[in-house]
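Re-run with default settings, no changes from the original entry. Doing this only to confirm the output is reproducible before filing.
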Amino acid sequence: MTDAPLYVVLNRSGDEFGEYHRFLDGAPARMVYLTTPGGLPALDQDGATELHVLDSLAHDDLLPLVRAVADRHGRPAAVFGQSEYDILTAARLTAGLGVTGGYGLDLVSRFKDKPTMKQAVAEAGVRVPRFRHLDDTPDADTLLADLGKEFPLVLKPRSAAGSQGVQVVRTRAELAAALDGLDPAAYECEEYVDGDILHVDGVYRAGARHFATVSRYVNTCLDYIRGLPLGSVLLDDGPERDRVTAFADDCLRALGLADGAFHLEVIRRADGELVFLEVGLRPGGAQVPFLHADLYGIDLFAEAFRAAIGLPPLWHGSREPAAGGWLIYPAPDRIPAWISDRSDVPDGVAELYHYELPAVGQVFTTPGSYDEGAGIFRFRGADAASVHRAVRTVLGQYQVRTEPQGHPAATPGRHRG
């Protein structure tokens, strides 16, 4: 194994999507894991060349450690991070160590920095929201003039994910107040484009689409941050799905993706026009990877890892039509909090095949995420319409009540089905 390629992996995932030894599928490798404590259970600890459990996966904390790893074992063949929080760090480590494999810093920057991302897509002739970075600290009037003097406008962190820090402003006074004290180097401003939000999930290999699906969100990621449930339903095969995947191809080619997994979001306006929203160089979060494994037998995280380090894909099945969707309820926005009451599993929803419900008395001590919530549901059905009805039925029936502090003893775990 001393001649096997050395891979350095930044890991936060403690479930099956962090099982890199399984992703290798027998390919020779020496694995060095840099993991948070929560990611440790998924890893092959006995088979690791080195394993380091760290509270921080920040670049400046990892660089001396990765240099020491390279001194002991030779230069890595690739440095890989699957989380949105680690992709740029892995690329910076790749550049700093002169690693030739994995994702380069230029590619990752196009997928991480929203103005750079939109500029590349726009230069390819694809419709994007009008946008402006805030590097030169423009005032409200300058932004309004540049973006068409129309409200609403959206202020976004340039590199954050999951709608963190996003603000929708609807008046000049709101815009001026939002700009006050904002770090201009970290934000952009763009026009608000109204319409359905779709997400395209898949894998590119050798510059071509290897696998892709299209889904329509139920509510939005911004709604989820504000306390509403979030879900999506896969589009049926047909002309609309084909049109959206072709649009996604245009965006991904503009960004220079050859090999990798992606989660791309598109706005479909009422008149049918498609507008690029943003894209991640990774599989989608929430229940997206679980649903795709259940319906298509594809492990998007395994495919992402193999694409990034140059191994051939594992999934070679045909993408037969499938209908499905998912729904998650957010954790309490004020913590600590506990579940004081909740509904039972909704009745009469044949499409509901998997659920995870919090126990009454369960305590939430950390902010909610797309991986944990106060109710998780997955659906499969005959077509998109039946799945969408099932999602709406659960939205109408399932309720959860939380109370702050002063809680009884925690009840661990979830009810699963």
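The chain has a mean pLDDT of 92. The first helix runs from residue 20 to 24.
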